[in-house]
Every structure is written in structure tokens, then in C-alpha cells.
Amino acid sequence: MLHVKTIEGQLQARNLKFTLIASRFNDFIVDRLIGGAVDYLVRHEARREDITLIRVPGAFEMPLVAQKVARSGQADAIICVGAVIRGATPHFDYVCSEATKGIAHVSLETGVPIGFGLLTTDTLEQSIERAGSKAGNKGVEAAAAALETLRVLQQL
User: Fold this and answer.
1) If you ran DSSP here, which 8-state letter would residue 134 be given?
2) Is 91 a catalytic residue?
3) What are the tens digits of pLDDT across the range 73-117?
4) Domains and their CATH numbers in the chain
């Protein structure tokens, strides 16, 4: 086996500041994502007082708020959580696409890692599955991704 230098993020959140940006729309799902993210961070040694929760109306508003937080320097990492459930109109496609592009743009523009926990599902049942049921909790996954990415960036 070849030995190469490997850079990996350590999953330890002590002395880091996190901002969760969560949509109010579909809050009965989003609250589970928030709970999962906060629980994950605390289990990895983040202090609750170092976690800020910002509620926004919906997914479309997330990128602007994420940009403001990232530029402020108040967060080492950001975690965006929300739930967009397909309806009978093309609104779903526009919201999902623009929120996704906007969040990615903010991370690239500012260098602040953003955990992406925006559910984009066809049904309410699929959202429930991804918010702590059969398919795990995507809030946990978004928090883990933000933490690991931050720790990798610190080594580069």
C-alpha cells in the first residue's frame, strides 16, 4: 500500500461557533432537523451557547442570511436546514434550485463551510423519513459535514 499524506477533518467541535439557519415553512419537519444538528454538535463538544439559531421564512431566504452571517465572521461554520415538499406547481423546482445554488455560492464566495440540510422531497412521508425516521436525520448529516469540512479547511 502506498503511503500518502492524508488530510481529514477531526470531528471535534470544542471552541467553535456555529449558526443554524432554519426555515419556518414546514417547521414540524424542520424542528427535527434542528434538534438533530444541535444534538450532534453538542455530542462533539460544542457548547450550546456557541450555537445560534436563525429562523427564516423559507428555503429561498437562506442564501442571503447565510451570506450575511458568513461575512460577519460570527460563525466558524453554518448549517442550513429546511424542507421543501413538491406541490402541484413548478414552484418547488425554482425554490430548490435557487436555494441550492445560493447556499453553494455563499460558501464558495466566503470560504465559510455550510452544511446543506435542505430536504427536497416529493412527499411529506419522504420528509419525515429524512428527519429522524428510516433514512436518518439530515440535520445530523449537515452538521457533521460542516464540522468535518471546517476541520479540513483549517489544515489547508
Assistant:
1) T
2) yes
3) 999 999 999 999 887 667 778 888 999 999 999 999 999 999 999
4) 38-149 (3.40.50.960)
